[in-house]
Amino acid sequence: MSEEMMRLTLAIVAKTLFDADVESEAAGVGRALTATMKVFPRYVIPYAHLLEKLPLPSNRRYREAKDYLDATVYKLIEDRRRTGSDKGDLLSMLLLAQDEEEAGRTMTDTEVRDEAMTLFLAGHETTSNALTWTWYLLANNPDAEKRLRAEVNSVLGPRCATIEDVPRLTYTTKVFAESMRLFPPVWILGRRAIEDYTIDGHTIPRDSLILMSQWVMHRDRRYFPEPLSFDPNRWTDEAKDRRPKFSYFPFGGGPRVCIGESFAWTEGVLLLATIAQRWKLRLQPGYPVRPQALVTLRPRHGVKMIAERL
């Protein structure tokens, strides 16, 4: 299921943001992402810049993965520059953008690559993980699955889901929110202190790296009674109003909140409804499902499921 959701969300983000078909690249992108994520934690430890220079197998795999991802995104940029067409998507906006301070200056390929790469990778990796964990939780909670399916059938009937249906898929949205509470796609994030700062009598020195874990906060029983249980009813308006704002932050917060938050909510709810409308997904008996804390929270061995057509 993890691989299927990765392939699906990669196709969606490529078509939506870049009007491109990269389905044939899904396996390669997945391998490259895994290689980069395994080496990423090294960059938050002291002397990381020295480790990067060593002839380690992990460094070689990282450089090969980076080159593969660069080539994939540069190919999208090259194709669009060659045609010169404005398709009204994100890539066209980046290529046509002009610097307000330097009149007429547009972005270089490297600058476009930097912006596009962030959205290209973050726009599918996190959503695919969130969907995978949601199917896992629904398979383990049949009452919630039945209620979700009942809502989907009531709202959609036999027709396809559209953007207008999202506000009416209220229980589906609650299921997605509860899934990201238990298995946040990004399980920890960091912020750098730009100056000394005091919180509750404790001084955080300038240039300190501050780590905040969604995994830890989302399972705090002060805010989420019986925190290990899967309960979409935690997400009624009344229940949300009783909790502090940052007791739940799957997309971060503040001025650096994830730029794709709205996109992810919309995509996640529509995909849950669309797939649940057509398929019943059961866990393969006896298959071990364990989280793996890389940059994102992936299932270590994937999630083997049996799909039954409805």
Written description of the protein model:
The protein is built from eleven helices and eight strands. With 310 residues, the protein is mainly alpha-helical. Helix 6 packs across helix 8. The two termini are 18 Å apart. The mean pLDDT is 90.
What structural keywords apply?
8 strands, Cytochrome p450, two-stranded antiparallel ribbon, 310 residues, mainly alpha, 11 helices, two-stranded antiparallel sheet
Architecture per CATH nomenclature, i.e. the level-2 architecture: Orthogonal Bundle
Strand tally is 8
CATH H-level name... which superfamily? Cytochrome P450
Work out the strand percent: 5-15%
Order of strands across the main sheet: 1-4
Q: What is the averaged pLDDT score?
A: 90
Low-confidence stretches: none
Q: What overall form do the CA principal axes indicate? A: globular
Number of domains: 1
Can you summarize the main beta sheet? 2 strands, antiparallel
Q: Structural class, from secondary structure content? A: mainly alpha
Helix content: 40-55%
**Helix count, DSSP H or I runs of 4 or more residues:** 11
Order of helices and strands: HHHHHHHHEEEEHHHEEEE
- CA distance, first residue to last residue: 18 Å
